[in-house]
Amino acid sequence: MTKIILASASPRRRELLHFITSDYDLASSSAEEQVHVPEGTPPEKVPLLLAAAKAEDVASRHPGRIVIGADTVVIGPEGEMLGKPVDSQDAAHMLRLLSGKTHQVVTGVCLVYQPDEPDALPADAMSASALSESFAEVTDVTFYPLSEQEIEDYVATGEPMDKAGAYGIQGAGSVLVEGIRGDFFNVVGLPVARLKRALNHFIYTIDPFVEEFRL
Q1: Which domains does the chain have, with CATH numbers?
Q2: Which of 3, 30, 159, 203 is 20 to 30 A from 110 via CA?
Q3: What's the pTM value of the predicted model, to 2 decimals?
Q4: What value does the mean pLDDT take over residues 157-174?
Q5: Which residue among 25, 71, 87, 207 is the active-site one?
Q6: 25, 183, 77, 179: CA torsion to nearest 10
Q7: Known catalytic membership, residue 25
Q8: 30 vs 16: CA distance, rounded Å
């Protein structure tokens, strides 16, 4: 049995995790839908809360396995959080906000390990830091100035409709992007380089009980 579970239904995250390992299972979670984000929470903290909710939910149902939860948000030039557009008009509105400006893409990642037998771990390994680890990766993305025709043509492709911020950098939305500062794959949905290092550190943290996890 594989020891890693990706708590995500995103096909993009599945593809990206393959750069680290192909030995993992999938288990989606809707736990983030029940998360109450306190008013005034900084937008960059939101994906961490949602990633943790996904990972903890799946880990509670799959003890003895490392669960990876992730969530990505787009933070507009004025600090507004941009989710998936509700319709084509909303998508066009988001693209106008991003046109000719720099915004941030933040992916929160949470790793959770729920032991098969909690009492098996020593007392000094039972802290939250020993059983979970989180981080957020930030990438700056700059758009070219977009004409109304460019926006209309891109929205017509349908690609923006299931993407936070109304664009996909790995698809037709790539022609909108002037440049990025940071991890490209973070914009796609999973910061693979940092995740690989975080996984290795997390596995070391919960050793010697999971030697077979080592990547």
Answers
A1: 4-213 (3.90.950.10)
A2: 159
A3: 0.87
A4: 95
A5: 71
A6: -130
A7: no
A8: 21
